[in-house]
């Protein structure tokens, strides 16, 4: 295995370059003669465009052009597509209204792009954008998820009566109704899964080029996979063959789902580059991201859990309104339906499941995948219900869960929603977490906290997610003349440490020093296909592709090794970086092969045959393997100051089953980031639109609260590798989204545990001090009134 092989907690090899400022992000890249694009965005949530006067803007200094939808339409530019519509009840289709690159006749959310100004400099483009005079006729708007489908709500699209994009269902409604009819107890909750602004560290950016001689476009932009943009951008928007577009993704400073998608600015810089005959660049500002980047979550749900007399789950029934925003983002309707609801059984034996999801249009920024992409929403429903049910039945939360966990001997287990869990020890993991948290000692800590005027709560959340087996993946592995390897792979790092993990896989397989392994991602010209990064797929899909490419390269190298050993290729074995001839002590290493290639000579100075001197590469295309099911248990302990509502997390730990772990250090980093985002959603982050005007009230970091260092305690991470995934050769399960899945219900369950003595039964996220304080006051008022 060596010191940089599989399982080693190796430090990230990419960090030194990034920490000394040698990263190369989209905005770092400039081209000679480039112009700058600035978008004119709507200040209204809903309005007709009565007219646009561009006279003054076009005459402003440095301006090269001012363009609107009519210019794009005249050039045949297509709309931004929704790529994965779902079928609703009775097979009804998702209603997919047009999503024009620039607003067509009407704006539908604050920030909707109306025009683009291209000028010599950023300052000139900004000044000219201020001179574009748009005549708006304001219309009534609806922004709140809970009100979007109300009779009489403002109509956003004529094509979608009542603002309903699709009414979807999953499961057997009759079987669920029967389970609830015979239930000894039913736990019920109404939940809000609050909307999130993604706020990646690196804002989006795009640089477009066009070569008139080859009629080829090049787009440099921050993405979660260059190939994900290639198809929609070329075939559905620009209407050109794929080979006429190259997409480059340099370093990326965070994506979290938001950078998967095609955006208007990426289309505009390409189109304007062709129109103007020079490169065009756009860089988003932080506040611009609040009104243009896809946002996350935003569900209103009623959920019920049916239980038998012994506390065994009989069924779960869920009804959700999911906010889509003003347009359908590429994956939008898929997230709350086929990605989220399918996870409602959780880790439990759940005989009956019925879910219905109504996807609703509102006058808000479009909503799509955000870290976890539907799985956090499902886990929040299930884990809040189990805690609520345990409290109502007088059972400890772990006891109710233990009665319902799928047991190891029952695996593989197929859920009522059709997923097959292959491996795991769910109660073992929960008990390990409880022991580490000193769960039994919490009662004494509660007494000590009360002595300080504080309320202490401890809460848990178990989780499982479905991930990994999404799309296809490719890898190409080249043998270099220095005896090293260059890997081209279709995934895309967004800061997760792919270069380190992939180097470990190759170092382990080829017994190479990490310095001799080079990783390339982010160029759509490198490979025909690439699935990018999302859904915790990279190590599984990339790993399978790399394994296959490695095996193919070894087969390509065997004839050369056989030539040097004067043997038959089929006789050779490859082990520990050497080709050996079994039954002898003769071998050649990769360095020997490289030296032979460098001089073009074999044994005795004989020239190498031409077929042995050709570029030696291994290639592998992997289809969609079975999904993986990482799982674990989060435990949060916190205190509440009842006088102020301030919540302070005292301790947070997690025990995770990610199968075989390639690099524990990278894995811990992923867990830390996910937990921080989950704590942010649970306690701090909330995207607020004015319910009347649709104006975004939390449009900057002055009003939108991200978690800071003092909001996050030291996180305690334990990885259990006792249950490797049974459906892939590496035994891995995926880790990138797990922290964001388990954290919100763990935090809220701990908070409710702290507040239960005061009569508080539920608080919606984010549990801000003001919201906690009000809940305490309301509960005390009710108690006083009852008395």
Question: What is this entry, summarized?
Answer:
This protein has 787 residues and is of the alpha+beta class. The model has no long low-confidence stretch (mean pLDDT 96).
Feature tags:
787 residues, alpha+beta, 5-stranded mixed sheet, 20 helices, 28 strands, 22% strand, globular
Which structural class fits the helix and strand makeup?
alpha+beta
For the record, give the distance between the C-alpha atoms at the N and C termini, rounded to a whole number.
69 Å
Low-pLDDT stretches are: none
Sheet having the most strands: 7 strands, mixed
Quantity of strands, as a count: 28
Radius of gyration equals 28 Å
User: How big a fraction of the residues is strand?
Assistant: 15-25%
**Cross-sheet strand order for the largest sheet:** 3-5-1-12-9-10-11
- Provide mean pLDDT, rounded: 96
Number of helices: 20
Helix residue percentage = 25-40%
- How would the global form be characterised? globular
Give a written overview of the molecule:
By secondary structure, the chain is of the alpha+beta class. It contains 20 helices and 28 strands. The strands form seven sheets. Strands 3-5-1-12-9-10-11 form a seven-stranded mixed sheet, with helices on both faces. Strands 7-15-14-13-8 form a five-stranded mixed sheet, sandwiched between helices. α10 packs across α11 (397-404) and α14 (498-510) packs parallel to α15. The longest helix has 28 residues, at 538-565. The mean pLDDT is 96.
């Amino acid at each position: 295995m060596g010191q940089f092989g599989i399982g080693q907690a190796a430090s990230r090899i990419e960090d030194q370059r990034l920490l000394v400022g040698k990263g190369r992000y989209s905005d770092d890249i400039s081209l000679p003669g480039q112009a700058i694009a600035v978008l004119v965005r709507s200040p209204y949530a809903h309005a007709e465009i009565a007219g646009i006067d561009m006279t003054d803007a076009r005459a402003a200094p440095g301006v090269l052009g001012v363009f609107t939808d009519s210019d794009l339409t005249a050039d045949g530019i297509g709309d931004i597509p929704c790529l994965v519509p779902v079928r609703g009840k009775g097979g009804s289709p998702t209603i997919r209204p047009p999503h024009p690159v620039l607003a067509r006749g009407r704006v539908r959310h604050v920030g909707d792009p109306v025009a683009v100004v291209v000028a010599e400099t950023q300052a000139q483009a900004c000044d000219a954008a201020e001179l574009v005079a748009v005549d708006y006729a304001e219309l009534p708007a609806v922004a709140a998820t809970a009100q979007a489908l109300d009779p009489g709500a403002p109509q956003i699209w004529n094509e979608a009566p009542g603002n309903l994009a699709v009414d979807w269902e999953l499961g057997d409604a009759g079987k669920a109704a029967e389970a609830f009819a015979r239930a000894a107890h039913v736990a019920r909750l109404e939940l809000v899964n609050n909307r999130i602004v993604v706020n990646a560290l690196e804002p989006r950016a795009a640089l477009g080029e066009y070569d008139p001689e080859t009629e080829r476009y090049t787009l440099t932009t921050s993405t979660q996979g260059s190939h994900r943009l290639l198809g929609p951008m070329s075939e559905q928007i620009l209407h050109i063959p794929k080979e006429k577009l190259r997409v480059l993704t340099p370093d990326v400073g965070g994506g979290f789902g938001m950078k998967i998608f095609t955006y208007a600015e990426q289309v505009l810089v390409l189109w304007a580059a062709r129109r103007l005959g020079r490169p065009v660049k756009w860089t988003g500002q932080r506040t611009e991201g609040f009104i243009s980047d896809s946002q996350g979550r935003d569900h209103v749900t009623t959920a019920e859990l049916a239980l038998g007399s012994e506390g065994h789950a009989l069924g779960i029934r869920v009804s959700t309104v999911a906010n889509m925003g003003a347009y359908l983002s590429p994956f939008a309707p898929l997230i709350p339906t086929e990605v989220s609801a399918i996870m409602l059984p959780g880790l439990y034996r759940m005989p009956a499941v019925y879910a219905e999801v109504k996807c609703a249009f509102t006058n808000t920024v479009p909503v799509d995948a955000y870290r976890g992409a539907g799985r956090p929403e499902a886990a929040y429903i299930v884990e809040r219900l189990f805690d609520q049910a345990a409290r109502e039945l007088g059972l400890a939360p772990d006891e109710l869960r233990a009665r319902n966990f799928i047991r190891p001997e029952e695996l593989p287990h197929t859920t009522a929603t059709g997923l097959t869990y292959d491996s795991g020890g769910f109660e073992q993991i929960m008990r390990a977490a409880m022991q580490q948290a000193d769960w039994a000692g919490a009662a004494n800590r509660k007494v000590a906290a009360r002595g300080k005027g504080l309320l202490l709560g401890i809460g848990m959340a178990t989780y499982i997610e479905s991930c990994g087996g999404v799309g296809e993946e490719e890898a190409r592995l080249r043998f270099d003349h220095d005896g090293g390897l260059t890997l081209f792979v279709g995934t895309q790092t967004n800061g997760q440490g792919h270069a380190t993990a992939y180097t470990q896989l190759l170092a382990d397989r080829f017994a190479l020093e990490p310095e001799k392994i080079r990783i390339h991602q982010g160029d759509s010209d490198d490979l025909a296909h690439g699935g990018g990064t999302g859904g915790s797929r990279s190590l599984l899909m990339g790993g399978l592709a790399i394994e296959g490419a490695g095996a193919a390269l070894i087969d390509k190298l065997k004839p050369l090794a056989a030539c040097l050993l004067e043997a038959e290729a089929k006789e050779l074995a490859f082990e520990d970086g050497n080709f050996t001839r079994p039954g002898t002590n003769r071998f050649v290493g990769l360095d020997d092969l490289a030296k032979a290639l460098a001089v073009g000579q074999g044994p005795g100075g004989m020239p190498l045959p031409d077929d042995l001197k050709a570029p030696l590469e291994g290639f592998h295309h992997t289809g969609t393997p079975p999904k993986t099911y990482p799982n674990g248990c989060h435990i949060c302990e916190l205190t509440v100051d009842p006088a102020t509502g301030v919540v302070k997390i005292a301790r947070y730990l997690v025990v995770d089953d990610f199968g075989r772990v390639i690099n524990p250090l990278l894995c811990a980093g992923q867990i830390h980031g996910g937990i921080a985002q989950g704590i942010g959603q649970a306690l701090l982050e909330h995207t607020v639109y004015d319910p009347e005007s649709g104006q975004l009230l939390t449009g900057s970091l002055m009003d939108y609260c991200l978690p800071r260092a003092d909001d996050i305690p030291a996180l305690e991470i334990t990885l259990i590798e006792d249950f490797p995934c049974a459906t892939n050769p590496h035994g891995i399960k995926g880790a990138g989204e797990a922290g964001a899945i388990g954290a919100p219900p763990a935090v809220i369950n701990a908070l409710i545990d702290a507040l239960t003595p005061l009569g508080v039964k539920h608080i919606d996220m984010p549990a801000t001090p003001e919201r906690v304080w009000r809940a305490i006051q309301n509960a005390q008022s009710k108690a006083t009134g009852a008395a």
